[in-house]
Design a protein that fits this description.
single chain; alpha+beta; Cytochrome p450; 5-stranded mixed beta sheet; 3-stranded antiparallel beta sheet; 12% strand; globular
Length: 512
Amino acid sequence: MSSIFVLAVGVVVATYVFLLALLHLTQDAREPPSICNAIPFVTPIVVMIRITARDKYNLPIYTLRMPGSRIYVINSASLVTSVQSQFRALSFTAIEASIAANVIGVSKATNDIIGNDVTKDGSYLMSFPKYVHSALNAGPGLDAMNRRSIQVIAKSLDKWAKEGPVSIKLFEWVRHELLLASTEGVYGPKNPFRDPAMEKAWYAFEPSIMMFVLNLLPRVFAKEGYKAREYMVKVWEQYFEQNSYAQGSELIKTRVKINNDFGIPLKETARIELGGSQAILSNTLPGTFWMIYHIFSNPVVLEDVRTELIKGVREDEGVCTIDLSYIKSSCPILLSTFKEMMRFNSSGSATRIAMEDHLLNGKYLLKKGSTIMMPAMVQHTDESIWGDSVHEFNHMRFVRQPGVKRTNPVAFRGFGGGTTLCPGRHFATTEILMFSALMVLRFDLQPIDGKWTTPRTAKSPLVNALPIPDSDINVALRPTNEKVWNVSFSGYDQGMEIVAEDIEDPTRVQAH
């Protein structure tokens, strides 16, 4: 037994020495420093993109050596900007192409179209932003979506106000309200999500998306998600085959147009729309929940936001009117609260694939085939950027104040940036701000057990940039008045300064 033990120890030691040597010999001196190598190629799997790694090593960029691959994790805002400018050498479209077949189940022919020349102008994925940005930039298309979704929100809140005090599960309730509003704005009067079965299918599919991304036998290990996906595909097939999208928004029309232009049949468009649904819903729904939670769980935040909003209310013979243009242009505290919600809660990561060996900033070698990750959480918890209060929720953080230096806008990664800049950020932001505004003006929320408790998010799907809570909060929803409320839409076609790209030039189309 002792000789076997000695032999086993010898094998372990020899393997360890071999892996250390392999790590050293295969690491180029120009690459970012390799960290977390206590057990070569194993420790990085555990560490991945933890904030503790940034704090411990204090590096602008570092390498995690994984079995058969490299991950470069970027902490520096200036390096993030550099990565975004190299959208061909450091590609996001390559990632989109690689998961299309797995997640949405498109055919090989369609996947070949999607994955063809992913870094060249004129390809499907490089053309896609140009199509959808025309529908999502400030203008008639975006205005129509905003108007429709806000009308749905306002009508639903009218109904809840008439019901009087009622007990609700906050996340479940907010999720349902925003799902209907968002999808009505995009899909129009034939919106498939009006059917509760479609809504239920989405909630079954979303938690299993990562199983599809990794292609971990989802038909076996994510049966409910797989069944839900195939059910939704059938519903989308009917929606497109019956030409129902023609009554929808400019966004859904442009998504059909690009597929038609590239020779993708409607049956495949139905599958691709699963990705469209994810873009609309996956972060707007939890984002609205966290916005409502942060406002109503803090009396100071609630009072500041409510005071700001009341100034924009016009009352005439018992009818109160709030204009969308006031919300978008004259509510810096509300907008700051929204951005702080995203900073404080974001858990997503912008990702790129190195299409070739690339010397970032003329200094750091990023090897072909490696993965580059820019975690929002790391950027959003950097004390050198956000100050001593970085781990506190400060609803005034983004309010411009005289004599106070503005935080580098690039450090705010709530909607990504560069090729991963969310084209629907203005639609989502407007929805969340108006829903929050109407809630603050019309209702009070109090936890049933008398105390607000922050839900944990350990079980949230990894694909969500804003986490889904592990548990819900039982609250009492109480109307604060019996007045009639209207939303008006004068001059509401202006954009907002949400991310760095908007601040630099709000009218510029982010084509890549």
